[in-house]
Every structure is written in structure tokens, then in C-alpha cells.
Amino acid sequence: MDKSQNAGYQAGQAKGQAQEKGNQMMDKAGNAAQSCKETMQETGEQAKAKAQGAADAVKNATGMNN
Fold first, then answer.
1. Contact criterion met (CB below 8 Å) for 24 and 30
2. Which residues have a Cβ under 8 Å from the Cβ of 9 and sit 6 or more positions away?
3. What residues contact 64, with CB distance under 8 A and at least 6 apart?
4. Contact 34/42 with Cβ under 8 angstroms?
5. How far apart are the C-alpha atoms of 8 and 14, rounded to whole Å?
6. What percent of the chain clears pLDDT 90, i.e. is strictly above it?
7. DSSP string, 8-31
């Protein structure tokens, strides 16, 4: 292999490694986004349950639940 072929090979190797690193970073970002989405859904469900509990407590305290 002459110098220009070797340089081209090394450039191709570097490009492939950079693409793989980029793919790994995108996977990590996607996983982080999914985790955040799940956490926000859980937080929303907990808030909804607390609000429902508070509403029920008010109804019970005011006699509106009967």
C-alpha cells in the first residue's frame, strides 16, 4: 500500500469511528429522553392521584360525598 492509499484507509477508519461514536451518543441521548419521559409520566400520575385525593377529602369534609 502506498502513502496515499494508507492515508485514505486511515481517513476511512477515522470516519467510521466518528460515525460509531455519533451513533452511540445519539443512543444515549435517546435513552435519556425516554427515561425523562417516563419519569415525567410517573410524576404526572402521582400529582393526579394527589389532586384526586385532595378533592375527595374536601368532598368528605363538606359532606358532598354523600
1. no
2. 1
3. 58
4. no
5. 10
6. 76
7. HHHHHHHHHHHHHHHHHHHHHHHH
CB 65 within 8 Å of CB 56? yes
Nearest to 23 by CA among 35, 15, 34: 15
What are the C-alpha distances in Å from 5 to residues 2, 12, 15, 41?
A: 5, 10, 15, 54
What are the pLDDT digits (tens) for 21-38? 999 999 999 999 999 999
Q: Which three cell numbers stand for residue 56?
A: 375527595
Tell me how far apart the alpha carbons of residues 7 and 10 are, in angstroms, rounded to a whole number: 5
Q: Which residues contact 58 (CB under 8 A, 6 or more apart)?
A: 64
CA atoms within 13 A on the CB side of 10: 7
Task: Give the type of residue at 48.
Answer: K
